[in-house]
Known about the structure:
By secondary structure, the chain is mainly alpha-helical. It is built from nine helices and four strands; from the N terminus they run E-E-E-H-H-H-H-H-E-H-H-H-H. Helices cover 57% and strands 5% of the residues. The strands form two sheets. The chain has a two-stranded parallel sheet. A two-stranded antiparallel sheet has the order 2-3. It is globular, with a radius of gyration of 20 Å. Residues 278-283 have low confidence and may be disordered.
Amino acid sequence: MFDTLAITWDVDPVMFTIFGRGVRYYGLSWALAIGLGAWLFTQFCRREGLSEKIADSAFWYVSLGTIIGSRLGHCLFYDFAATMANPLKILYIHEGGMASHGAALGMLVGLWLFARKNKMPYVWGLDRIVIAASIGGSFVRFGNLMNSEIYGTPTDLPWGFIFVRTGETVPMHPTQIYEALCYILTFVVLAVMYYKFDQGRRHPGMLFGVGLIGIFLSRFIIEYIKQVQESWEEGMDLLMGQWLSIPFILLGAACIALSYTERFKKYVPVPTEKPKVSNAKKR
């Protein structure tokens, strides 16, 4: 092991304390992710000539769906026995425990309710929200880093992290950073597809499909060098995170295929205002 080159990580996850309760970096990362997502969605609406009330409505439905889904996902996917023994444990969100797969499911449900309420095409919302979700996911992973959690297996690479607060004495893969970088790359690809090539209108469903594959395929691969989150995962050929990623990867591939058919062509809303930015050149 290149111990002398490793990074000793001993960061206090609590930024400050107020009224006897600690405010964590992890909570800030979630707040930033949701706030940035709301801002991006507002920009999309302005660009496409849609009322900002659409963005406001999406914020409430998607934010609540994401938070509720992430908590339920953790309790049901990773802490099922304890949750069944004490269902009120679901409400103990202050104790931590949020699952990204649950967040994704909650986001999909919240977006569906938003689309139904506002009579908006569901696929339109999926294509835009996945852009925000990809960059938001990177914030959450940096929050995990500040918590010294969900890190990887031992490594002799010079950028290994020794997570002092969890009792580690050897360098570990900083898988939180690996995932964050993959999500940022996915965001860049999606942003270019949306702004430069106007894929959100030319091929509805394409952005959502590419985003799902970028987020969950990277998650699936990185899980191979990640520590198990729960003891019952020991010895499994695929970890829970990988099993949960497979349906999203398949859904992403299906959406990309369908985006080239006429099935999704109708899922483009009519502008209610003059677009702030002209669309890409028609080809």
